[in-house]
Amino acid sequence: MKRRRFIKLSAISAAGMVLPLRLEGETAAMPSLKPSTLITPNADFYILQIGDPAVLDAASWRMVITGLIEKPMPPLRLEDITAMEAVTAMRTLKCIGDPIGTEQMSNANWKGIRLRNLLEKVGPKPEAKVVVFRCADGYHTAIPLEEAMETETLLAYEMNDVPLPTEHGFPIRLLNPGNYGTKNPKWIVNIQLAAEHESYWEKRGWDPIARVKLATMIGTPSEGEEITGGKVYTVSGAAFDAGNHGGIKKVEVSIDYGQTWEEAEIWAKDSPLAWVLWKWDWQVPEKSEPVEIYARATAHSGVTQDEIGIEVEPVGATGYHMIDAAIVTP
Ligand SMILES: Nc1nc2c(c(=O)[nH]1)N[C@H]1C(S)=C(S)[C@@H](COP(=O)(O)O)O[C@H]1N2
Ligand SMILES: [Mo]
């Protein structure tokens, strides 16, 4: 009956790269994720980067657009960006290196401009296939030009109504929907149009595509929690597919190892590009025994999460989130 079975992807190791890889950075003092509000306050939003955050000054910051372009333009100042047509959007970010039951997933309201509005000004040459972002901390990543031209792809300068906090990329970061955090670079100083590019994490074996997988996490209860028998207990969490399967349609919970499922209530949501929050009121039996709680999501495309998962490396984890808890009846 038990428990998580993982398929380990071996394509990368077969190609001769060294696994396991760890995608981690300055992750210090991460609050444990208990999604209880649709918007994560900036102070609780997860932080992940390869080193120290770059501390940039708004007045001296410049961003240059280089490479395969028809009409070069002078380095951009922050005022040049904020003077362009602004867009606001709710977006969830999730790290590719995050195991099932993620703590590295958070949701915010952002303000910025459409990247395409900038790219149209410089005119990508026909040979340009990717857009490379180079960042003040040495990080670099690329996305396909078609993705860069989508109307949802934003260069953000505000997060939850304040200028981007330093840790989240001040003054400008990319929000690239559908993709894990690796494709959402912070502290951008150079945008380069190129034919191809091998990004920082791809050089270290991580997926160059990095599309977010359909996933559900249980925030409550936490692992090992004791739940009082004979009462109602609310199991709750978040689910997210970044729009890759049309958004979350339903979330279900099982307390009998996946034999039967109960539909949870989705009590907060925005667009498919933001997580949904769900809860399920459980009438806990009056007894004392261990219990395993599973949660899974079904997307609008009809896809339901699989029990069998794959581990985080190198494409992002899948599978049910399973919590071991105990019913305790005095
Ligand atoms: N410049 C820069 N941008 C970066 C990174 C980085 O190391 N440097 N890490 C990426 C990764 S792996 C993730 S998950 C997200 C995290 O964004 P956050 O710290 O704002 O939550 O930033 C992305 N952007
Ligand atoms: Mo990440």
Along the chain, the helix and strand elements come as: EHEHEEHEEHEEEEEEEEEEEEEE
How many whole angstroms does the radius of gyration measure? Answer: 21 Å
Poorly predicted regions are 1-33
Count of beta strands: 20
Strand percentage: 25-35%
Q: What's the shape?
A: elongated
The largest pleated sheet is described as:
5 strands, antiparallel
SS content category: mainly beta
The average pLDDT score comes to 88
The total count of helices amounts to 4
Commentary on this structure:
The protein is mostly beta strands and 330 residues long. 6% of the residues lie in helices and 34% in strands. The chain has four helices and 20 strands. The strands form five sheets. Strands 3, 4, 7, 8 and 9 form a five-stranded antiparallel sheet that branches. A five-stranded mixed sheet has the order 12-20-18-14-15, with no helix packed on it. The protein has a four-stranded mixed sheet with strand order 2-10-5-6. Strand 16 (265-268) and strand 17 (276-283) form a beta hairpin. The longest helix has 8 residues, at 115-122. It is elongated. The model is unreliable at 1-33 (pLDDT under 50). It binds ligand MTE and molybdenum atom (MO). Residues 23, 48, 95-97, 180-182 line the site of molybdenum atom.
